From TrEMBL:
Subcellular location: Cytoplasm
Superkingdom of origin organism: Bacteria
Subunit structure as annotated in this protein's UniProt entry: UreD, UreF and UreG form a complex that acts as a GTP-hydrolysis-dependent molecular chaperone, activating the urease apoprotein by helping to assemble the nickel containing metallocenter of UreC. The UreE protein probably delivers the nickel.
Taxonomic path: Bacteria, Pseudomonadati, Pseudomonadota, Betaproteobacteria, Burkholderiales
Protein name: Urease accessory protein UreF
Organism: Herbaspirillum frisingense
């Protein structure tokens, strides 16, 4: 990968970008509140399980398809996968999160004048822009390789989950780094899964996570947004 593409990937993958990723826990805070996650081992197990059973089987494959659609300037395919992703957000919290972050990243891309006019018009034609759509737009606009972008998206998600555990369990910084290091082979395997799944194998079936998200929406004391 060229140095410029690598730098762009690092920029896109950072949860510290001004799109608000760090302000959401995706149900993890409710899992911590209920005692399901309470130490380094359970935090690592939770993140790895969610990575393989949810993110690698739905969010990441749809993101990869959106990258392909933007790269070929296929507006119909962008709309198709965008609508499917938004329709699959099964709690108010999950839906608000992806729309808020997608809007913020899309606006940032427009303000920075990323990509060409055709790319921007496809993005702006979407009634709602979830995060995978905005991230795919930026990936193509910045010429980040597809496989690297998927791995970067997965790492960003995992890093944000680890940060939530560090702040909320709480865990120490060393424990957080240890979890991230141990997840490297898991992330590589998850990226391989995401890039290999056919359309009819995509699934975000995770009722337990959906229930935790709904509980988090009404949780009395919380750090993260709902």
């Amino acid at each position: 990968m060229h140095a410029s593409a690598l730098l762009h990937l690092l920029q896109l993958s950072s949860p510290s970008l001004p799109i608000g990723a760090y302000s959401y826990s995706q149900g993890l805070e409710a899992a911590i509140e209920s005692g399901r996650v309470g130490n380094e081992a359970s935090a690592r197990e939770w993140i790895a399980h969610a990575l393989h059973e949810v993110v690698a089987r739905f969010e990441a494959p749809i993101f990869a398809r959106l990258v392909d659609a933007f790269a070929s300037r296929d507006a119909a395919a962008v709309t198709l996968w965008t609508e499917r992703f938004v329709a699959a957000r099964d709690t108010s919290e999950f839906r608000a999160e992806t729309i808020q972050m997608g809007y913020s990243l899309g606006k940032l891309g427009a303000d920075l004048k990323l990509g060409d006019q055709a790319l921007l018009e496809i993005l702006q034609a979407q009634p709602e822009v979830p995060l995978p759509t905005a991230l795919a737009f930026a990936t193509v606009a910045l010429q980040v390789p597809r496989e690297a972008a998927v791995l970067g998206m997965l790492f960003s998600w995992a890093e944000n989950q680890v940060l939530a555990c560090v702040k909320t369990v709480p865990l120490g910084q060393v424990a957080g780094q240890r979890i991230l290091l141990s997840l490297q082979p898991e992330l590589e395997r998850a990226a391989g899964t995401a890039l290999a799944l056919p359309d009819d194998a995509l699934s975000n079936w995770s009722p337990g996570l959906s229930l935790l998200s709904m509980q988090h929406e009404v949780q009395y004391s919380r750090i993260y947004r709902s």
